[in-house]
Amino acid sequence: MESVIGMINEFDTIAAIATAVSNAGIGIIRISGSEAMEILVKIFEPYNKKADVYQLENHRIYYGNIKDGEEVVDECIVLIMKGPHSYTKEDVVEIDCHGGVTVVYKVLNLVLKNGARAAEPGEFTKRAFLNGRMDLSQAEAVMDVIQAKNEYALRSSMDQLRGSVQKAIRDIREKLIYHIAYIESALDDPEHFDLTDYPQELQKIVEKESENISELLKTADDGRMIQEGIKTVILGKPNAGKSSLLNFLVGEDRAIVTEIAGTTRDILEEYISLNGITLRVIDTAGIRETEDVVEKIGVGKAKQMAENADLILYVVDSSLPLDDNDREIMELLSGRKSIAIYNKTDLEAAVDIEELKEKTGSPVIPVSVVEETGISQLEDEIKRMFFHGELSFNDEVYITNARHKAALEESKESLKLVMDSIAMGMSEDFFSIDLMNAYESLGSIVGESVGEDLVNEIFSKFCVGK
């Protein structure tokens, strides 16, 4: 890591637009690197013309003009953040100008003309990581904060940005590296280290740390749903009210609703937020026996989507008796988390709620899209079903990143090999190999044992300017 950090000071000074490129009240151009202040000197004239730009104080805001020679490009304010007390730990300058697309690009091009180069996606955060300001899990959390779809995703990402994952991983790694070093020392100097009862002692440590990893892995499914949304598939017979339910949840007419059975034939996907929880809702074709070739494909897609769903919302038209199509849908619910939507409660009931509960084995929520009732009960049931009624961010660390989950699984498997070696009475050098593999797998999460290609791939997914 030190060699990489040493190289970062030789990098070019970079610049990018850090705000959305659109007509807005303000636009921000960010500059980072050893020549940031020199570039500012060439283009910025403080309102107090007697001020020496080189002497502008750190962590101060200055008002003035951006100039291209004698031409005033825009009036602006300039923020000075000199390294190492900046986001990248390099000298950073931010120019806040008017937010018109033309003026923002004109200021950026002026910065590039005077010595900066255009930043690559995520390069500011990449430099923050390479310069040791944050570890890789925190750097990834930066993008998660930007992309957070709901309050819970934002809170989880902010916890990771503050180091919740970093601390959990480093606590485990500290235990492992101690015993790796102990074994290596004992093998090099057997006269001063007694390993007679050591395997039994090591087994207790490995079991405990393996359990800690398992606890982190248990949060991965919740973490994925917090970050990406609960994959929710709406199933039901034609005209049960599936598309009307989707439109009601979204708050606008996204799906076509008619009295003609079989109107929905393809998959329609929308993200909605219910009381801070994001649902990735998928409306599907009504399930029924049909000779229509296109509708039959839609029914097949609906069944396929149900197999991979986190949650199935089974919409039942309560004004019509259950039939063979309903029984086919109920078979799809077996072994899956599902909620029966007892729809059209504004009409005379032909389906008994208790009978529906018994046949589906699912909670039943009475809903009327016409009267706009039942959604709050649905919200409460989803939260209870997936998050035991609430999400706590006091002490809980949520694993929301698929890369982190894979690394944890690899480290757990390596610790299992250690326990297998102890059970088989193998020599201590076998313990050390697998302990080191677990240590390095965990290190990939915080960026202490990752290759350049992986780092580049991670930051390539960031937006330019961050």
- Main beta sheet: strand number and arrangement? 7 strands, mixed
Write out the strand line-up for the largest beta sheet, numbering strands in chain order.
3-4-5-6-2-1-7
Helix fraction by DSSP (H/I, runs of at least 4)? 40-55%
Indicate the structural class.
Answer: alpha/beta
Q: Give the helices and strands as they follow along the chain.
A: HEEHEEEEHEHHHHHHEHEEHEHEHEHHHH
Strand content: 15-25%
Pick out the low-confidence regions. 1-10, 253-266
Averaged pLDDT: 82
The number of E-state strands comes to 13
Give the overall shape, derived from the CA principal axes: flat
Distance between the termini: 22 Å
Radius of gyration: 29 Å
Q: How many DSSP H or I helices?
A: 17
What features would you describe in this structure?
With 466 residues, this protein is an alpha/beta fold. Helix content is 47%, strand content 18%. Strands 3-4-5-6-2-1-7 form a 7-stranded mixed sheet. A 6-stranded mixed sheet has the order 9-10-8-11-12-13, sandwiched between helices. Helix 7 (164-188) packs antiparallel against helix 8 (198-218). It is flat and about 85 Å long. The chain starts with a helix and ends in a 6-residue tail after the last helix.
